[in-house]
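dude i think i finally got it to work??
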Amino acid sequence: MFKMTSTNDPATGMVATNSRRVSVPWILGLYSLAAATFIVAARMAGWYGGPESQFLLLPFAAVLGGLTQLLAGMWAVEADDALAAAMLGTWGSFWIGYGILNALFLSGKLAEPPGPFHELGFWFAPLALITWMGALAAVAESVALVLTLAFLASGATLASVANIGLHGGLMTLAGWFFILSAALAWYTATALLFEATSGRELWPLGRASRRAGRHEAPRPHQEAPAHRVG
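look at this
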């Protein structure tokens, strides 16, 4: 165990941790989530694609949606952001697993189920529950983050039911909810990026009043709060 102090600097968009500085993890994490979720969800919604589309998307979903998002989640641990660590770490891990699963299908090591994909449906169930709890916790953060996670959780819920029951209409609807979540994730990440580079809020996030001062620079002679990690 060791003691870590952290402060936020809106002028640079960095989180200072003792003598180290860590970029705000939500920016990279939400951009990663938005990109991977949109590409896969657009196929689910029927916008494009054929039998081989999921395999062509595999490298991008696994790296940008999985590895990059998981790394952002780990940086969130360093930045002492529990919500970011939980959400980005969970979804980053899921996308990595999704990529590995499709790689096994592609290699012929596993046979892709021709009918209901019950196993994937049951995986979406805890993923949805975790994300719903994240949306609830995000009430203390901002409206933008609540909406992002709520639509993401809704899409996961519908995908769970659709995979277990093989309901094509629900799978298409799940795709649309995921697309809306991706758009909201992009908006939230961009708002945070603009705020980090300009030092002020340019796009509204709807922050909760009690969290409004979270990103303010510490006042002179004000000691940053200490947190125990480990």
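Strands lie at 2-9, 14-17, 20-23, 226-229.
im so relieved honestly
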